[in-house]
Amino acid sequence: MAFIDVVEWSPDGTDLYAWKYPESNLSTATQLIVHESQEAVLFSKGRMIGKFGPGKHQLTTENLPLLRNLYGIPFGGRNPFLTEVWFVNKTMRLDIDWRTTSMRLMDPEYGAMVPLVATGRYGVQVQDAERFLLKLIGTMHEFTSSNLTDQFMGPLSAKTNSAVVSYMSANRVGITRIAAHLEQLGNFIRQSMDSFWSGYGLKLVGFYVTSIDVDTTTPEGQKISEAISDRSAQNIAGYTWQQRQTFDVASEAMSGGSDMGILGMAMMTGMLTQGTNGLGQGILQQPDRSGFNTAPAPANNPEEQLTPGSAGGAQRANTKVFCANCGKPYASSCRFCPHCGHEYNPCPICGADNERETHRCATCGAELQNVAASIGADTTCQRCGTIVQPGTKFCPQCGTRIN
Q: If phi over 0 gives left and psi between -120 and 50 gives alpha, with beta otherwise, what is residue 156?
């Protein structure tokens, strides 16, 4: 068998951390070439006989003093010996992906256990080539980043899970705010894992957390994710969970297309109007048959008017209308505009003021005469403007005799 004259490694990529030279029949005249960011380690009979950094080296008993004890090789000549040559890649890599198993956290914002999963990247660099080879290589002929990930998946997940939960619990950071703490969390995890990697001759050169999300691979996580999405939509749109439920019920009732469906819609809308502020009062106020809004008005309205109530007391007018003549606001209980004297001509649907000769409401577009007829109202009280049923002798609002 011929002796090997030159030993070197020129890797095609950076995925390999270590590579074993395929031949072991060397001589003391062999040239060993070690490239930049590499280190060569020689083993013979289970013992390390030398380490070499970047450069060109000739394998002699001067730089391999153990050869004489192992083989009795004299100085000079091309004396043969058997050895394993390992090349170690010492470049810095930051492209190894990691992912935790599902972990559970008591979220401080929601006060419930939330299943989480974290992902990110890390990088390691070979710092002690001898320790790295002795502890990790074994009988393999090469060691890749995939081997590293597979071999350390268990301890890496355990340590990462523990560090993530400890950090979020100690700092009371929930799932909705963790995105602002990813850099600090990555540094915290890295500090807790430095000693672990150094025990294998490796140095942790970077550890990054790219995301922490609800683990939607579980049924519990799917429900929590949907609930968070619904809550975000409610905050943006400005409605509450109770209003959302009422909307859904009313929509189902309305989709039936029957009188009961419409009645259910009206009942749900009334519940919103009475039980909520903002959206219910601003959008879902329901006019009565006289065309006036019945929702309560703010107590500090400077233009509020008091009108006689059906129960014998006084009730507060609750809406403003804008004069069709001068455009200024006044209370809907007024028969005439207090600013210009224009007679209030209310739309029986939305209550907006209209000109007398107008046949269609300028605000909602309803046909004023047809709509009034459709609800059986063709007589108006001359005093308060309330539309009353045919045959009514006295106004039910102010008691004025109807001509």
A: alpha
- The domain limits of the chain are 6-89, 96-220, 238-274, 287-403
Superfamily of domain 96-220: Band 7 domain (3.30.479.30)
Cα distances (Å, whole numbers) of residue 18 to 10, 41, 142: 12, 10, 5
Q: pLDDT digit string (tens) for 193-213?
A: 888 899 999 999 889 999 999
* Partners of residue 118 on adjacent β-strands: 212
Full-prediction pTM beyond 0.70?
A: no
Of 121, 99, 221, 118, nearest to 173 by C-alpha is: 118
89-127 residues labelled b (16+ CB within 10 A) or e (exposed): bbeebeebebebeebebebeeeeeebbbbbebbbbbbbb
Structure token digits, residue 237: 């749109």
**Nearest residue to 307 (alpha-carbon basis) of 361, 344, 350:** 344
